[in-house]
Amino acid sequence: MTNHDIIVPADVPNSMEQEFINNYLLITKKRQRLFLFSCDQKIEHLNNDFYGADIHSDAMHPEHLFRIAQQGTIGALATHLGLISRYGKQYTNINYIAKLNAKTNMVPTNQSDPISRALWSIKQVINLKKECPLNICGIGFTIYFGSEYESIMLEQAAHIIYEAHQHGLITILWMYPRGKAVSNEQSVDLIASAAGIAHSLGSDFVKIKPPDATKVLTSAQLLKIVTAAAGNTNVICSGGSIMEPKLFLEKLYDQIHIGGTAGCATGRNIFQRSLPQAIFMTQAITSIVYENDDIKTVLRKYQIRS
Amino acid sequence: MTNHDIIVPADVPNSMEQEFINNYLLITKKRQRLFLFSCDQKIEHLNNDFYGADIHSDAMHPEHLFRIAQQGTIGALATHLGLISRYGKQYTNINYIAKLNAKTNMVPTNQSDPISRALWSIKQVINLKKECPLNICGIGFTIYFGSEYESIMLEQAAHIIYEAHQHGLITILWMYPRGKAVSNEQSVDLIASAAGIAHSLGSDFVKIKPPDATKVLTSAQLLKIVTAAAGNTNVICSGGSIMEPKLFLEKLYDQIHIGGTAGCATGRNIFQRSLPQAIFMTQAITSIVYENDDIKTVLRKYQIRS
Amino acid sequence: MTNHDIIVPADVPNSMEQEFINNYLLITKKRQRLFLFSCDQKIEHLNNDFYGADIHSDAMHPEHLFRIAQQGTIGALATHLGLISRYGKQYTNINYIAKLNAKTNMVPTNQSDPISRALWSIKQVINLKKECPLNICGIGFTIYFGSEYESIMLEQAAHIIYEAHQHGLITILWMYPRGKAVSNEQSVDLIASAAGIAHSLGSDFVKIKPPDATKVLTSAQLLKIVTAAAGNTNVICSGGSIMEPKLFLEKLYDQIHIGGTAGCATGRNIFQRSLPQAIFMTQAITSIVYENDDIKTVLRKYQIRS
Amino acid sequence: MTNHDIIVPADVPNSMEQEFINNYLLITKKRQRLFLFSCDQKIEHLNNDFYGADIHSDAMHPEHLFRIAQQGTIGALATHLGLISRYGKQYTNINYIAKLNAKTNMVPTNQSDPISRALWSIKQVINLKKECPLNICGIGFTIYFGSEYESIMLEQAAHIIYEAHQHGLITILWMYPRGKAVSNEQSVDLIASAAGIAHSLGSDFVKIKPPDATKVLTSAQLLKIVTAAAGNTNVICSGGSIMEPKLFLEKLYDQIHIGGTAGCATGRNIFQRSLPQAIFMTQAITSIVYENDDIKTVLRKYQIRS
Amino acid sequence: MTNHDIIVPADVPNSMEQEFINNYLLITKKRQRLFLFSCDQKIEHLNNDFYGADIHSDAMHPEHLFRIAQQGTIGALATHLGLISRYGKQYTNINYIAKLNAKTNMVPTNQSDPISRALWSIKQVINLKKECPLNICGIGFTIYFGSEYESIMLEQAAHIIYEAHQHGLITILWMYPRGKAVSNEQSVDLIASAAGIAHSLGSDFVKIKPPDATKVLTSAQLLKIVTAAAGNTNVICSGGSIMEPKLFLEKLYDQIHIGGTAGCATGRNIFQRSLPQAIFMTQAITSIVYENDDIKTVLRKYQIRS
To answer: What is the dihedral of CA D130, D134, D138, D141, to 10 degrees?
Structure first.
């Protein structure tokens, strides 16, 4: 990959083009792919993703996330800016994606449509990046489109993307259709629309849930529609709840090689395991995303059996 | 056409008058008409306008819009600023109209009245125009009047028009009556009112849906009331869903020559076709809008038959 | 009238006192009265006031308003700043009152209480006044008190009045009680309250609807209560729908000479007529408001009969 | 009283301490008491407090308030900044308290909870004070706590108090429990809470309605709880509707001497009378508040009998 | 304890690191624990916490809080900035935590979900700290998560924490799940989630209510889950209503020694007593929190019996 393969959006000023390319190369490891270790659940899903019957007790402690990020082989750790500031001075060599908005999952959609506001600004991200200094390579923002409050989130996202690009930061949108008006959150139509909206907002990456399979097509096959709709915006699929490693890795492999996605955004499938197992998992994912190993090699190399 | 035929609104400062005239001449091709290639549907209509049974597969890929704009013969491409930033560096010779607000069509009016907020500012448009540089000649903004939230959109539109004119940019309002209080969105009364509101807000152009025909008058005849109500604001009609080329071109011809409109805002009737057919369609429209050919000449020249 | 008869409010800085007095003398023609040609209906009443069975076809064209203002004998033309900017460069010798907020009349009160937000700022008014230059002598703003949203309009009005006075501009409030909580919009109690609120907000003029007559008192007699409540704020009555000229002029005469109002705010009774008739009407009104002719003289001079 | 008896709050900068003390001494006449002539009713109560069967016709004219303030013996006149600006240049020797927010009483609580927003800023108050110049000694602001919108009023009040103190102005909060959640607006619990909230917001004075008497304690006795809860914030009681002078003065005397309040906020009991009677009333109140006469002396001195 | 034991978050600039450490050491008395004298109830609980059958009459007077803080042995006094400004000049040697938002408890959750807005800014805190000067060591802010308005409070909290850290101030979040969507406010799941959210927002301390005991585990045992979820954010438990001293102290002891909390936030259990008893209580709490005495020693030393 050369610099010429990287899409530098027009809202990156010429003076920041090299900074943008550096950030892009850091998290994609010069392979046009991204393995995002996605860890914003302490606000989004409360403590439920970190403590419970099927969750290793290592996950109780938030520092677990930073230990995995440091000792594992991820592309970047995405988490809220506040959490980065709690551990940043001890974990200075991690690539960070600062998640800038948040909401809890407590208010059900039939009570009130979802709204998630920006908690931090790009100016604050840049200050933190320079002052500490920290490898903050980009930012994340969630939009619940189809919500009665989508206009607020669309507005904040557009401004944040523009400002991020002004400073050479990479942008990732978490795009979820949600609200009283949404009946099927994972229909391929809505997931492809999610990709198209993120693209129209000018984002470099879009994180979506993989579409539900239909009677005739698998989820990975349907992803082709999604990655087409995303244009030159890179699509990464979120991992969802923990599942058997073999199944998880095969699914990821197909998303990339059949669906045309540019990597993954994985959290629970990594951090709900013990530190050694979590690190092991990041290596297996890296094998698929960055080393481009075929799935049999990956499973054999990591001795994963169902 | 001389500069003296161009209405320069009073909120264009003297120092920006030439810039305004240049932008006006660029998109009207010195013929007081505008053929706007209108492409904001990836957010407004989701992926539904880009993928489906009757849509050519070229339309799946967002770059299709830019290819048509570059290889076809349009006046300007209107699309969201974020999408412009994704392709701007590769397509620097297109005339752009930056669409500044957006909403999805997911929340039905009977659930909540429509609201579409500004996602980008004139300052950002100007920065992008100068930095890249890009031929951004003007801006677009949608108002849903009759909505319970119309006051927010009226406020943002008025400020954006004022600021755009301060920088010599052309303004186009998408004016749609919509909300629980609106029973007939295409009655001539409301369409003429749409034109009058846009005019009162100081806009250079207004994009409306053509009024429904009545028992005694055709839509094109009723457009006379609309273009009168618009004063010196230019009226352009949106094209709506795809239809047979002959029908589409005859309709457009009548809008201009009977209704007194100043051109068209066409999207789906162009981009839902293959690239060659789409380019062909832009040429036929150009023949009507800019070359002022009579309809028989146009149909013959492009060998279009029903 | 000398300068000493003019109330210069305390929020006009000393350096702007002469500017305020000049503006005041311009629109009152040194006679402490104001004939406001009130033309904000293209947004407020949609196209319904400009096209229809009983409306002359001249009214279809927005420029009609400017032609009347230029060729007639009004004190000032009140209309939205956007409309002023569309015609300002061709009509530089008109005295303008820039109407700064707007709403349509589409959402009924039983659906949602009225809200009209500021669309333009005093800073924009001043820029336009100086750059073009234009004779913008003052500003207008509507408050719907009794609405659930009154606090937003009260806030914007107070700031706009303060800022207008800081720049020596005259202020006129359109004061209408409206909302689910209002049963009789034209009771003298509410109309007098309207005057008192405008006075408490520091406005120079207040435009109200004349109160409904009671069993014992005429509307003009009841206006005495209103003009008392207004203190040193000048009261002008809005004209309402078109009526027979004789009736209209007699009513206006009584409002001034019995009710103690300081002039009128007339729109439809002028612009719904042909250009010559509209000009004629402005002369008859001028005869009452500025020349202080008695009603018989006026009717005779203009040969008006019922 | 020496300067050392005056509580200068910590948010008054050292450079403004003397200004604060001067303002405090002006309105308290060096006696640690305040007789506030409270006149914000033209917006709060509409025209109903100024015109009607039992109201002297002098009250119809807003200048009545300024005549009383100038010719009577009040501590300060509290009214909206807009009204001050209408008469300020003619009445420069009055001590003013600028009331900064307002609402009408038209929307009933069961339709929508009360909200009153700031209409003017401290910056505007200071400009007016210096430019004219005017003796604006402090500011007033109303909070309806228990309203669903209390958070907006608490926020604005806190900022206004802070800013007022930064410029050496005295602050007075009008504290009223109101809204669907409030069943008894004058229970001693809520009135004491009102005092405590104003104190926690840092206000110098709080204006409350006197608590309802209980079976065992008079309103004046219950006021002890209120003045204790107010800490070093001075409590003044509002006067309410007009009543017989003897009753009014005895009530006021008890509020101060039994309840421990620091004066009164009186409007209707003064201005609903003729100018001579109103001036007479201000003198009787002054006798109690500032001259500390005992009630018998006051009644005898002013020959007041029931 | 050395400086190296203190977590300095990354959003504290290097130039403010020493200031942050100084503030941290002041309130923790170099023992990594905090005894917060928590006194924001005059707005949050109205006058009900300060006057009533079981409350000593000393509590009627707000200065009681400052007397206790000065004569007792607390770590810091947390109260609203406005109240600090009323007494700050007389009580300059107290360590203060400025509580920055507030709401009353009058509107029930089934009427409207809770919202508490920032009443003061960090800039105002810093000005007050420097100008007076006052020992303001940090700030407090309440978030009601699970409320329909949580996004507003999350946004304000994140900005306030960032700004506070920029100036070297310590941050404490009051975290309460509340709203129509919350059925059990003290379930360990929600309390642990509260700790995790505060941690993700970057706060130094989080104040929570202790979780309800389950059939198998005590509240103190369940606190282990909470303090794990809080990561390097320190957890302190609020004290709640007044209870028998022995019970209160034993509970506190267990929270620290079993649950792993870093101290306490106590108000009513102190200030609802007479001044001497309140001071005595602060000494007993200090014995546990700062002197690390075992519970038997504490009870014996202070001769406390049930």
So the answer is: -100
Q: Are the C-beta atoms of residues D59 and D50 closer than 8 Å to each other?
A: yes
Q: Which residue among A82, A128, A132 sits closest to E158, beta carbon to beta carbon?
A: A82
pLDDT tens, position by position, for chain B (306 residues)?
Answer: 556 689 999 999 999 999 999 999 999 999 999 999 999 999 999 999 999 999 999 999 999 999 999 999 999 999 999 999 999 999 999 999 999 999 999 999 999 999 999 999 999 999 999 999 999 999 999 999 999 999 999 999 999 999 999 999 999 999 999 999 999 999 999 999 999 999 999 999 999 999 999 999 999 999 999 999 999 999 999 988 999 999 999 999 999 999 999 999 999 999 999 999 999 999 999 999 999 999 999 999 888 887
- CA-nearest residue of chain D to E113? D148
SS3 category, C70: helix
**What element of type H or E holds A265?**
strand A263-266
Tell me the catalytic residues of E.
176, 207
| pLDDT digit string, tens, across residues D59-112 | 999 999 999 999 999 999 999 999 999 999 999 999 999 999 999 999 999 999
Query: Alpha-carbon distance D31 to D22, whole Å?
Result: 13
DSSP label at residue E15 = G
Judge contact between C101 and C142, C-beta under 8 A: yes
- For D236, D239, D269, the CA distances from D255, given in Å and listed in that order, are 9, 11, 16
Q: Is A touching B (3+ C-beta pairs, cut-off 8 A)?
A: yes
Q: Identify the chains in contact with E, defined as 3+ C-beta pairs within 8 A.
A: A, D
C-alpha distances (whole Å) from C253 to each of C261, C293, E18 are 10, 9, 78
**CB-CB neighbors (< 8 A) of C203 in chain D:** 82
Task: Indicate the pairing of strand C117-118 with strand C101-102.
Answer: antiparallel
Nearest 5°: the CA angle A297, A299, A300 is 65
Which regions of chain E are under pLDDT 50?
none
User: Based on the number of CB atoms within 10 Å of its own CB, is C183 exposed (0-12), middle (13-18) or buried (19 or more)?
Assistant: exposed
Rounded to whole angstroms, the Cα distance separating A141 from A207 reads 10
Convert E274-292 to b/e letters by CB count within 10 Å (16 or more is b): ebeebbbbbbbbbbbbbee
Q: Give the other-Cβ count within 10 Å of D247's Cβ.
A: 12
Task: Name which of C3, C17, C200 to mutate to probe chain D: the one with the most chain D Cβ atoms within 10 A of its Cβ.
Answer: C200
D111 contacts in C (CB within 8 Å)? 148, 180-181
Residue at token pair 């209870």: E243
Answer for the pair C174, C140: CB distance below 8 angstroms, yes or no: yes
- Type of residue numbered D147: S
Q: Which chains touch D (3 or more CB pairs under 8 A)?
A: C, E
Q: Testing the interface with A: which of B93, B101, B103, B104 to mutate, by most A Cβ within 10 A? A: B104
Parallel/antiparallel/unpaired status of strands A234-238 and C95-99 = unpaired
D303 Cβ contact partners less than 8 Å away, ≥ 6 residues apart: none
pTM above 0.80, yes or no: yes
Question: For residues C126 and E63, what is the distance between their CA atoms, to the nearest angstrom?
Answer: 52
